[in-house]
Amino acid sequence: MTGDLHAALSAERPLQVVGVINAYAAVQAQASGFRAIYLSGAGVANAGFALPDLAMTGLGDVLEDTRRIAGAVPLPLLVDADTGWGEALAIGRTARELARAGAAAMHLEDQVPVKRCGHRAGKRLVPADLMRERIAAAVDGRPDDRFAVMARTDALAVEGIEPALERCGRYVDAGADMIFFEGATALEQFGRVAEAARVPVLANVTEFGQTPLWSREQLGAAGVALALYPLSGFRAMAKAAAGVFHSIRRDGTQREVITQMQTRAELYETLDYERYEERADAILARSGDRG
């Protein structure tokens, strides 16, 4: 398992959790000083399969990315487990397999299995009792209580603030260690959630959605314990790549966009390339001696 999310929370409040779509992005996030990282279900679908975030990927897809990311950095990794990929027994397995793959935490949501992005219309929720079963199954399936189980609710947009607060309290009673309060539209909502749940609350500060881009200081003052930026890096990568592709196709050369690219030296520094090269040279030298 990667680092402990509970320990990271003790070191930083609100804890900034940045989304990474692959192992290289995770290394970049660590170099920037982040203490925790995130694997988005939308990121797996969008970046890995060029699919929308509509429950079209599964546990196996997420496990592969989890293993690669957790193998690259020691930071605690929070993983989006959608609705758990099945009923209670399957959800227990999801928790075990994610922990085995290196995740430090997972979050489950209270939507129906054919889920929607939290910032899209048309979301449908399962009854609170069914979500409580999901949470209890994940808690029962995890290897130990260092692996955090976070309950996400989309109830604000569907049912309103009061039912959402009630759901948060019930999810914590079922064993949730933290609450992911999706789609907030006012800072004071987080304070009410924190008071109702009495566990750390996560704010999803995703771009181009329903939630304003509040600062870390504003979120902390509102009672938020974790500030999530799920796809910021991916969106920047995608925009930059599209521009470069267009320029090369139009101009027949990359000269006009070369300054937008990471240099070879910067890549090698990020990968600690020279250290690996020195080890390769030493192996070759020993092979020559034996030959």
Layout of SSEs?
Elements: H1 5-11, E1 15-19, H2 23-31, E2 36-39, H3 41-49, H4 59-72, E3 77-80, H5 88-101, E4 105-109, H6 128-141, E5 148-153, H7 155-159, H8 161-173, E6 178-181, H9 188-197, E7 201-204, H10 216-221, E8 226-229, H11 232-251, H12 264-271, H13 273-290
Parallel strand pairs: 1-2, 1-8, 2-3, 3-4, 4-5, 5-6, 6-7, 7-8
Read across the widest sheet, the strand sequence of neighbours is: 1-2-3-4-5-6-7-8
Write the element-wise H/E pattern from the N-terminal end onward.
HEHEHHEHEHEHHEHEHEHHH
Radius of gyration: 21 Å
Structural class: alpha/beta
Main attributes?
single chain; alpha/beta; 51% helix; 291 residues; 13 helices
Could you describe the 3D structure shown?
By secondary structure, the chain is α/β, with parallel strands linked by helices. The chain is built from 13 helices and 8 strands. Strands 1-2-3-4-5-6-7-8 form an 8-stranded parallel barrel, surrounded by 9 helices. Helix 9 links the parallel strand 6 and strand 7. It is globular and about 65 Å long.
